[in-house]
Amino acid sequence: MIGKIAGRLEYRSTDHVLIDVRGVGYIVYVSDRVMAGLPANGEAVALYTDLLVREDNLQLFGFTTLIEKEWHRLLMSVQGIGAKASMAILGTIGAEGVSRAIALGDWSAIAKAKGVGPKTAQRVAIELKDKAPNVMAMTGAEPEADDVIETEAPAPVRRASPPKANPAQAEALSALGNLGYAPGDAAAAVAEAIGAEPDMDTAGLIRAALKLLAPKG
């Protein structure tokens, strides 16, 4: 299994790139969002990868974060979602958008992807609903690239320390932080949601907090 590619970007096509790794060229298929964020040809690049094995073909799919890679794997586990549809979904709403849509049961956001109909989108939202909290709580770290690229280290994020009464609070705060919400806003939403229903589980707490954080109007 090839889990990561790090090398020099040789060229890009509409849906894939060629990455040179010490003289060996790997064709890696990427979503529109990943493609837009790649460096110029000739520069260093690193991507997490997932290998799709078929009888007559091997295909590598590339992702900038582990969360994106995990969503690709889970999306493809749903009937009617192949690699092409998964990349279309990730390319349309991104990994964070997938996390929000599935946590909230918002299948209409998933249906915005080309080639994904309403029934399939509903199936995705239903089948992956219980898996959303675990994916959202994953680290969103970029690929390690100590010897190929240099990145500016992000400033440490202070997370509010939730009460120990319900472990779901800490998991929900971590998930909301990974989605980009400010610690203060996330903590306030989680506190309000847990106050209304103290025994709420992680999945329910994340959904309730996201609804509170959603733009009003």
TrEMBL record:
Subcellular location: Cytoplasm
Keyword terms: Cytoplasm, DNA damage, DNA recombination, DNA repair, DNA-binding, Hydrolase
Chief localization: cytoplasm
Domain DNA helicase Holliday junction RuvA type: 1-62
Classification via Pfam families: HHH_5, RuvA_C, RuvA_N
Entry-linked Gene3D superfamilies: 5' to 3' exonuclease, C-terminal subdomain, DNA helicase RuvA subunit, C-terminal domain, Nucleic acid-binding proteins
SUPFAM superfamilies registered for this protein in UniProt: DNA helicase RuvA subunit, C-terminal domain (SSF46929), Nucleic acid-binding proteins (SSF50249), RuvA domain 2-like (SSF47781)
UniProt region (Domain I), positions on chain: 1-64
InterPro entries for the chain: DNA_helicase_Holl-junc_RuvA_I, NA-bd_OB-fold, RuvA, RuvA_2-like, RuvA_C, RuvA_C_sf
Family: Belongs to the RuvA family.
Domain characteristics, as noted in the entry: Has three domains with a flexible linker between the domains II and III and assumes an 'L' shape. Domain III is highly mobile and contacts RuvB.
Function: The RuvA-RuvB-RuvC complex processes Holliday junction (HJ) DNA during genetic recombination and DNA repair, while the RuvA-RuvB complex plays an important role in the rescue of blocked DNA replication forks via replication fork reversal (RFR). RuvA specifically binds to HJ cruciform DNA, conferring on it an open structure. The RuvB hexamer acts as an ATP-dependent pump, pulling dsDNA into and through the RuvAB complex. HJ branch migration allows RuvC to scan DNA until it finds its consensus sequence, where it cleaves and resolves the cruciform DNA.
Protein name per its UniProtKB record: Holliday junction branch migration complex subunit RuvA
Source organism of the structure: Yoonia phaeophyticola
